[in-house]
Design goal:
The structure is a homotrimer.
Chain A: E1 17-26, H1 28-38, H2 49-64, E2 68-79, E3 87-100, E4 106-116, E5 122-133, E6 179-181, E7 186-187, H3 190-199, H4 210-213, H5 225-235, E8 245-253, E9 263-275, E10 281-292, E11 306-317
């Protein structure tokens, strides 16, 4: 059969290497569509870091997560080189862990996915784990391998890169433990999340097919978790306007599903601060929490309304 | 009167030459919007062939089909030169046939439409026929001229052009009569088809105006038939991933109307195979059938759910 | 507090200078998104004048009108230099007037906003006035200053710039007092106006947040007034196809709110004609009126259906 129904849990082997095709060229056009969908105002002088992340992620979906039940987490995400308009991105994954669930119907696949530019230089690497269905519940379970993943990326691994300040708040001005309500809310439309997700070449069916999903788990299309990250990140400009570059993704959890019609709010907490070798810049470790249909003035971090808990390092200019 | 209500059937004459204005520059930006709307993953190293087709078609709508009842068919479509970002497209039509319908209220207009680049070189030519209203049902009928149109484009007329393979299935691997279910379905949103259709400068009112259409034939806006072609073509990547270039359009029929909210599925059949002078490439003549709200595992090709029956030549790499 | 709730009426002072950040680069990508959202067919060989206007306007929202009740008017808008893809736009506003309303809860802020290119040359300047809430109704009122603003821009201030004619109607063919029904109507979708408004970096909440607005004045999200200008302007191609460049904005009023689902129609009236120093071009002063869910064959200019009354100078080629 020539059409592809995706890999199932029993198809993966630890150590397996997968080159994702096709490659994807990111242009000024992609950047403009991204801007229109999210309204991101961060000034990064090129392609938004999250557009790079979603594109590399999206390229991997066809091989890794077409039969996913849920995307469980990310770790060790490092943005190594900025991507400029016109760059051709290639992506590759290695299976670094497997663990069948006790019900025998699903298992967790751990992969390390890397994106490369046309010169073969890595622009982004990250680990993720995802729950994948088995095709045949009687297929024997692989030996369990659970990789040891760092709780956060070490500051020494962060790649700095200056951008001009666009607001009053510098790295120096943020305090450990400080919480910031990003105030604004934005309502997600079906056309917006579907266009974004297609822009990323992400083909997971649950985001696109109402005919199937109306009889599925939720009765409607599920919004791609990465879309929620980008919505929340765009909102976070209000209070973090100089955090123009994401240097690393330490972790992330999609706590509850998001659907078209939901209004997303967000707040941030400063988890850590690090100096960088570039003296004019510093890194903030930030927790970005998003909630649906719930303003975030009281900084909610649990309950059915919380949809995202995302941990990353951002680069800011110093005074 | 300075505003334009479009030509009616009695305004056309066989042999009439119409230069369509304005011209249209296709950029990386247009390619990105196209990608976001369809999720097309074919790697053609430039502007998607169907974006070129829709743009040339769209430029012709204002002169040819503003008063159309239905777009009836296409033939002899040949993609002669790839279009690169930045190209300025010009379009021109010749009326090649006319046939008033027996009810005296409408007639069929046959045109040959051509798109040219800034050097005046033809990038695409095709014939289409469309049922157009009369302004005045008492206007005398033109003499009937029905052009002889080829059932399919001869392989010798196909322009080859290599692209790197992105999957395992080469020209050699497809068999005559082989059918491929493209599996996935995608739901069309109003904002998506309206944005696509406007991107093409297609001004046919039935796609945009809910106020009028709520009292019209369908009670809602009709999706541009070409939008359905692009949706189905994007789905066909799953099973035809190396068919990155369309070389010719042999024919096409929009069997039933499509509306926002419909979920489109598609399947393909290999109708013919041809070698090309370029030894590393071959052509497949493919039938692409799309259905609404009906998975295509049983290859449906008739009934109310079938919305498109499209016949084209694609270029694939050979082993 | 690091997040920004916007300036309130009592925060403004006459003479205050505000540099808006961040800057905004307009690319072919932004032009393509704009084209897909509006279907604008005017051929201006660069970035659409209204895309420049909305971008400069949008950059000013965060500082000027985040707490606006209503955008009341524009005047003295002059497009001084065409903007080409790749240009970086900077924006700056000066407060030129203040007038507290008698209810003591709101006041009118008059600003002159200017957009500059990367060489520091002004590309666009305009005055606008907007009703802004007070944070504290007991805050003392500023001294009232109401600037004298011209009813229209003098023809001598208009910057000409030739574009190739794309239709039969030249400057010479339009008569004073002539009215043109643009015939077509287009229905606005939530995803379209939200994407457009985000493209402009316009962060006014009333356009994006259904959760809040469902309990607000209208029970739903309000469409950005500038979106309606662009919709009406795109419709006006039908009858004004050679009016490819906007040279000045004399004034504009958003007479009634517009919501997703509304179908916009438009008509134009020729208010004035002016010769330009460039002999092959002339200027038309046009009134562009838009109505919702009401075809404009009878040229409506008052009542609940009229949503826009816009006065501008366009440049057309002469015979």
């Amino acid at each position: 059969m020539k059409s592809w129904a995706g890999n199932f849990f029993e198809d993966f082997r630890v150590g397996q290497q997968i080159a994702h095709v096709p490659s994807r060229t990111l242009t000024d056009g992609d950047a403009a569509v991204y801007k229109a969908i999210y309204g991101a105002r961060f000034d990064h002088g090129g392609i938004d870091d999250l557009l790079v992340f979603h594109t590399v992620f999206g390229m991997s979906v066809n091989d890794i997560s077409l039969n996913a039940v849920a995307n469980l987490g990310y770790a060790e995400g490092v943005f190594r080189r900025p991507v400029v308009p016109g760059a051709v991105l290639h992506a590759h994954s290695e299976v670094i862990g497997l663990k069948q669930n006790s019900d025998g119907r699903t298992g967790i696949v751990y992969v390390r996915t890397r994106g490369f530019d046309d010169e073969g230089k890595e622009v982004l690497g990250y680990a993720r784990w995802v729950m994948v269905r088995k095709r045949d519940i009687d297929a024997p379970a692989s030996e369990t391998v659970v990789p040891a993943l760092a709780k956060s990326v070490m500051p020494a691994a962060l790649v700095s890169g200056s951008t001009a300040p666009v607001g009053d708040h510098f790295w120096d001005d943020y305090q450990l433990g400080e919480k910031i309500d990003h105030i604004d809310g934005t309502t997600i439309e079906e056309a917006e999340h579907a266009m974004a997700t297609r822009l990323y070449h992400n083909t997971a069916r649950v985001h696109f097919n109402l005919f199937t999903e109306k009889d599925g788990r939720f009765g409607k299309r599920l919004v791609y978790g990465g879309h929620v990250i980008s919505v929340a990140r765009a909102l976070s400009f209000n209070g973090l306007e100089n955090a123009s570059r994401i240097a690393a993704i330490n972790g992330g959890r999609h706590s509850n599903p998001v659907f078209a019609g939901d209004t997303i709010y967000a707040w941030s907490e400063v988890l850590d601060k690090a100096e960088l070798s570039a003296r004019d810049q510093g890194a903030l470790r930030l927790r970005l929490v998003a909630a649906k249909n719930l303003p975030c003035g009281s900084f909610p971090d649990q309950g059915d309304s919380v949809v995202l808990d995302f941990d990353y390092w951002a680069i800011l200019p110093r005074r």
